[in-house]
Specification:
single chain; about 240 residues; alpha/beta
Length: about 240
């Protein structure tokens, strides 16, 4: 490979093939048999990622692995040698998508997204959304931060205390689904239809908020879209580590 300064050098360790050259035919055959037996014995999904220009792992071998009868899938990375370094965003995305389909529970998938984002200094900036409707989604997760839509009570016949408790219950449920909880709150905005409800709302809030983990908060009076709603709460939280 020719570098930026015009000098030529190896793209890999030239001694990488020494162990293969030293092995005799019987040892190679036995080793291959052991590897194929191991592959067939795996009871979980397997992802094979091959560099386009690999001279150690052929396309034919990958095709044979996929056809082995186990849950084997493969991806080939263009313009790469034997082993992709998984530093580029498109390469990281391959593994993320694989684990996303393997881990079925949403909270685990969201946590996995945060791990990939944080481990690679924001290389991936994808937004994960849940409960997506025509106008809004209830949850958005980006770079380890959870954003919830404004939560209101469904039972609007309740007084401010009842509505506040119901809203906080919605927040608990959504945060748990996103892999977090109220101890990880980063910011809270509370909208009251009437500031006369401030004391009663706070009474319910104080019973819910975890002692020692209170987040920054703002409370304002605002006309809400549904006049029967007395309170709406918007929160941001961190994905639980």
């Amino acid at each position: 490979m020719q570098g930026r300064e015009g000098r030529w050098g190896y793209r890999y360790d030239p001694k990488i093939a020494v162990p293969f050259v030293a092995a005799d035919a019987d040892a190679v055959s036995l080793g291959e048999a052991v590897l194929w037996h191991s592959l067939v014995s795996i009871q979980h999904s397997v992802l094979v990622v091959r560099g386009e220009h690999s001279d150690l792992l052929s396309r034919e071998t990958v095709e044979k692995m996929v056809a082995s009868g186990q849950a084997v899938t493969s991806k080939e990375v263009a313009g790469v040698g034997h082993a992709p370094a998984f530093l580029a965003s498109d390469q990281i995305e391959i593994t993320y998508r694989f684990f996303l389909t393997t881990l079925k529970r949403p909270r685990h998938n969201i946590g996995l997204r945060a791990i990939f984002d944080n481990s690679h200094s924001g290389t991936l900036m994808a937004v994960i959304r849940h409960h997506v409707g025509a106008r809004l989604s209830e949850i958005a997760v980006h770079n380890g931060t959870i954003y919830l839509a404004g939560q209101i009570a469904e039972d609007t016949d309740q007084d401010i205390t009842g509505q506040t408790r119901e809203v906080l219950g919605h927040i608990d449920r959504l945060l748990a689904e996103a892999g977090s909880d109220k101890t990880q709150l980063l910011s809270v905005q509370i909208y009251l239809s009437d500031m006369a409800h401030f004391a009663a709302m706070n009474a319910a809030w104080d019973m819910w908020v975890p002692e020692g983990n209170v987040s920054p908060r703002a409370t304002v009076e605002s006309k809400l879209a549904n006049p029967a709603c007395l309170v709406e709460v918007v929160v941001m939280a961190a994905v639980r580590g």
